[in-house]
Task: structure prediction
Amino acid sequence: MSARGTVRLPGSKSISNRVLLLAALASGVTIVRDLLHSDDTERMLESLQTLGIVVEPLGDNAYKITGCGGNWPNRNASLFLGNAGTAFRPLTAALALSGGNYALSGVARMHERPIGDLVDALRQLGADIRYTGNEGYPPLQISPAMLTGNMVQVRGDVSSQFLTGLLMALPLTGKTVKVEVIGELISKPYIEITLAIMKRFGVVVERQGWQSFGVSGGQRYISPGTIYVEGDASSASYFLAAGAIGGGPVRVVGVGKNSIQGDVKFAAELEKMGAVITMGDNWIEAAAPSGGKLKAIELDCNHIPDAAMTLAIAALYAEGTTALHNIASCRVKETDRIYAMATELRKVGATVEEGEDFIKVTGFGIQDSGFREKSGILLHPASCILHPVIDTYDDHRMAMCFSLAAFGGALRINDPGCVAKTFPDYFAAFAGVTQAVPVIAIDGPSASGKGTVAQRVAAQLGFHYLDSGALYRLLATAALRDSIALDDETALAALAARMDIVFKGELIWLDGVLAGDDLRGETCAAGASKVAALPMVRAALLNKQHAFRCAPGLVTDGRDMGSVVFPDAALKIFLTASAEVRADRRYKQLKEKGMDANMLDLLQEIRTRDTRDTERSAAPLQQYPDAKLLDTTALDINQAVAFVLDSFRESSKAP
Result:
């Protein structure tokens, strides 16, 4: 798969929900444009309306919010906030300091996400908050506050949303309040977002470094009139990584060098891995390194905890081990993201080490030729062998991150709809800038030379090569090795599914053992024809064939490559020659290898196989309507290869 194109980003979730809350608390009417349409913002909008705020949709992701001036119209309400942390935490603070009776709850995962540090801080100001489930976790019951304190301490090393919620609510107290952060403040760029948006609504927060913040009394939120929501920098990370992995360039529009979002710094970290990054006021563009290979990095990711997940996926395609530190907050997000990432990365073949606040990923360098050697054993990248099923843990970022693993080979993502939390149209946008790995499928009768032509075309283009016919010959060989009858369809299908096969040029490995010349002999070929006629066998080998489709491309030869296995192949060739010429080529090939051969016997065997292959019920030999005919009776190998290359270049120009 390759990547190229332009994506217009949806609005930032973090900015959207901050803007909505402050617009609701402000005096005056605010027009919010480019708002993110997602589960999280829907929960915030529903809650504001439940609290009595007038919300009017204007179309095209714009809303008119009539603020309440800090006095909620509805003083009694029950709010369901799903798994929206950017709504739950700040609403908890704003309601706790405003005087009313409110019940706040969410989905089961939200009830596992800690909120005790925020509640403790609010209680220091006189808030009356009670846990109705487990101590330190939602759901919550809020009663009218008796505001007394003017000094608050809050932990900063669990979630920056605690400090964000507290700061946004402080103007409701009407007095000067100082906040001290205990421990290291994580995710500092998200606090920068909070301070910048509060300033847009007329409230200035004074701070001393990252340990002390103050809000002077008498300040209140005032509508700025119209406010635009920046594109989501966290979502930009997936497309920028796609450009770095899949060639690029990929441009994201809606966020750029003047962004107030910390995750825009992801581009700089991706650049350290070798990506080519360019940036404008409202856009960022990424392309693959000039040498084609990313390199591993070691990084403190405190400033980009969400985008750190994207770096962990990029590490799959980098040389070396990437180590990402200071990401403990990832364990208290929509899921335990360190555990989830480690678990799913292992499914695609990565070596992963995880700790309380770090993850280390050693990938498989897909951008190499596609093979690695270790201790003398030839290894194929895991992602090109496996067909993993990725679990997403009801976490939008897991689904979006692992879409990038598809650059290494086919996979399946469970519950892709979870991206609705922040980017409902993500997979459509991803499809818009990615293109499937091109496939050239070459079919034809036995001994037509399709294998030799396919190998040489693959070498010329730098593509991977798959001899699908060899899969069936290898299955016949393995069946004889394991004493399985060639008509035992069930046992053969099971054997086909577990075979480990590796191609490199003309060399083939079966279960770690180099296959010999007997693989090309007529006995093996006859066995291959028998097993290839069995529907269960063909179905078992289908996924194995799909998994060879790896960037930058694949050249494959075989019976149903262009009709069943890769119907979307960029080019389909039906290569043939007269039976006499094919027999002569096979005769010379065998003689060159020092093997005995009889011309008349070879001619008879070829004619017999042609008849059998043409008349069989499963994948009969035939030229499909969308395949180009290449008769090589009067051509040499170089002419045949040139024909295929010219045809591919021509097809690549087609719109």
